[in-house]
Every structure is written in structure tokens, then in C-alpha cells.
Automatic annotation (TrEMBL):
PROSITE patterns, alphabetized: EF_HAND_1 (PS00018), EF_HAND_2 (PS50222)
Protein name: S100 calcium binding protein A1
SUPFAM superfamilies from the UniProt entry: EF-hand (SSF47473)
EF-hand domain residues: 50-85
Top-level taxon of origin: Eukaryota
Matching Pfam families: EF-hand_1, S_100
MF annotations from Gene Ontology: calcium ion binding; calcium-dependent protein binding; transition metal ion binding
The organism of origin for this protein: Cynoglossus semilaevis
Alphabetized Gene3D superfamilies for the sequence: EF-hand
Keywords: Calcium, Metal-binding
InterPro entries per record: EF-hand-dom_pair, EF_Hand_1_Ca_BS, EF_hand_dom, S-100_dom, S100_Ca-bd_sub
Length: 122
């Protein structure tokens, strides 16, 4: 039985390959495949932006060898970055919740910290 991390890794590989195999080089994502992957797999990340401009910018940032396509290693740069942002948000949110508990306790010491943490977008 695979661990949750093994399942997550397998899922990332499978998702990449299912989109990269649709057109052209089956080991790379072209711009259309990348846009479809974002729209279908990361809709919440894309909904507040102009999708075509966002995909164009991300494609330019990811395509390190400037061949007009994104290979798996280049795609993993995005995946790792998104994962780090999610972790940072989670850690900040947990600190915010801890601080809220201190502030509600009425000891007065946590109030400044609580105000500072409220800047974190939730």
C-alpha cells in the first residue's frame, strides 16, 4: 500500500503525462496543454486573473530552455513553488489562529501579534 506522499507524487506525474500526451511532443506541455491543465486542475489559482496573460507569463517563466514547451522538470518548478506557497500560508494561518486564541484570552500581550497576523490574506 502506497503512502500519501507516494500517491501525491504518482498523481503529479500522471496528471502531467495526461496533458502532455494530447498534442505534439508527448513528454512536454505546449501552451494550449498548459492552459488546459491550469483551467482543469488549478481553477482556483486561475479564476481571478486573465487566463491567457497568466498562462503566457507562466509559460515564459517556466520554459527555462526557451523551446516553447514545458518539460516535466520545468513543470515541477511550478509545482514545488505552489506547494511552498501553500505551506507558508498554512503555517501563517496556524500562527494567526494561535494568536487569536491569545488575544481572546484577555491578557493584552497577544493583541499586537494578533493585529499583525490579520494582514495575511485568508
Amino acid at each position: 500500500m502506497a503512502s500519501p506522499l507516494q500517491d501525491a507524487i504518482s498523481t503529479i506525474v500522471a496528471v502531467f503525462n495526461s496533458y502532455s500526451a494530447r498534442e505534439g511532443d508527448k513528454y512536454k506541455l505546449n501552451k494550449a496543454e498548459l492552459a488546459t491543465l491550469f483551467r482543469e486542475q488549478l481553477p482556483e489559482y486561475m479564476e481571478k486573473s486573465e487566463c491567457s496573460k497568466t498562462v503566457e507569463q507562466i509559460m515564459n517563466d517556466l520554459d527555462l530552455d526557451k523551446d516553447g514547451e514545458v518539460d516535466f522538470k520545468e513543470f515541477m518548478n511550478l509545482t514545488a513553488t505552489l506547494t511552498c506557497f501553500c505551506n507558508e500560508f498554512f503555517v501563517d494561518f496556524m500562527k494567526y489562529l494561535e494568536c487569536e486564541g491569545e488575544c481572546e484570552g484577555g491578557d493584552g500581550e497577544g493583541e499586537g501579534k494578533g493585529q499583525e497576523q490579520k494582514k495575511c490574506p485568508i
